[in-house]
Amino acid sequence: MQTExxxxxxxxxxxxxxxxxxxxxxxxxxxxxxxGTKLLVDCGMFQERKLRxxxxxxxxxxxxxxQSVLLTHAHLDHSGLLPKLVHDxxxxxxxxxxxxxxxxxxxxxxxxxxxxxxxQNKRKRHEKExxxxxxxxxxxYTTEDAQAVFPLLSPVKYGEPVPVTSGVEAxxxxxxxxxxxxxxxxxxxxxxxxxxxxxxxxxxxxDTPILxxxxxxxxxxxxxxxxxxxxxxxxxxxxxxxxxxxxxxxxQRAGGNLIIPSFALERSQEILYHLNRLLLQDRIPHxxxxxDSPMAASVTEVFRRHTExxxxxxxxxxxxxxxxxxxxxxxxxxxxxxxxxLNYIKGTVIIIAGSGMCTGGRIKHHLASNIxxxxxxxxxxxxxxxxxxxRLIVDxxxxxRILGQKHRVKANIAQxxxxxxxxxxxxxxxxxxxxxxxxxxxxxxxxxxxTALSFADLVTSTKKWTVxxxxxxxxxxxx
Length: 479
Ligand SMILES: [Zn+2]
Known about the structure:
By secondary structure, the chain is of the alpha/beta class. The protein has 13 helices and 23 strands. It is globular.
């Protein structure tokens, strides 16, 4: 491997440029230049407040010059800038699994709608305040831009070699992170010989419900891996159903509602699966469960269509009991009118709604109706980032502002750990242990600086591998 200033500079070099998720968590995007062509692995949106301005910058290459995109999974921090890429001239194929294509359509449309609403709100606010913001008051991309991505999505199957461009073949393997998620092995044949690269995408977890374990790779010359939780360990997941059952029983006895803020992809389906298992074992009362999120309802449909991607335990469940996402008293709420009627229910029902950190979406209405009722419970099942309404509530705020109104927090606030779609430090090491010989180089990406650096140190000191933590825009020549 050489830096860009090395002697080998020529069009036929294999080069890798880190265009995101480099000492930060979002905006995953790696440009691979090989045999005179350009490929992009992921095209993610930057979501950290201080980095969002990068979403508005021009791509550092003409998008029309790009041969194709390899997409690991549908989360927006990996797929969210595809509409902009297509709008700016990209017209090649976007290789991804069928489930990723189906989920990406749902998520990109939702993202475009948010971009459009955001631009409209900004325009109104700036007009009122008589000032201009740092970005144009036009959406980053529109619904039409998102729709223009769809014909380019080119489904691949796990384990089948995909010819990508001259001398380059990719194989997608299950990452066990979210439905359809992949780790991508790229084999590059050049005059200098054959090289393999593994892009981890987001590394999933072992022994989680529904999805299989992450795939291990015996060897690779270069590895690009995520490190989101590279310095932390998750709570054990064993007691999830025990805790969930306890919360439900207590809330029913108190006579309130159980409100669960949840992400639309994976977390909502996991909760339904756990609820279904508890109901079948008669461990909880048979309450009505509302999934009040059109996006979660649509994603659940994708899960229903792709049971072939489930792990053995979930497939056995289907053989014995039918779909994990169907049970009596489960209602998928799509219309706004129906959603509004839920605000009048005094108890006891279970309402699952987005967004997972209470930053927007229908959950805000359910919080407004329930947070001041001591008999109701708000159950958090995901990480709550700094500066979000969800974080304020779990941190014990006595009063919160929801939809412009102040509300006293009197409901029971509960939190369940163990629900993460990302491998923790030890699970990342377990994934690396699959490599039977050290790669030529390991690039640690997709983690906050401190986290990525400390994980890289750990791998260097324990395994004696050659490891680096690239910075935004770094470009390396792969020998
Ligand atoms: Zn992800």
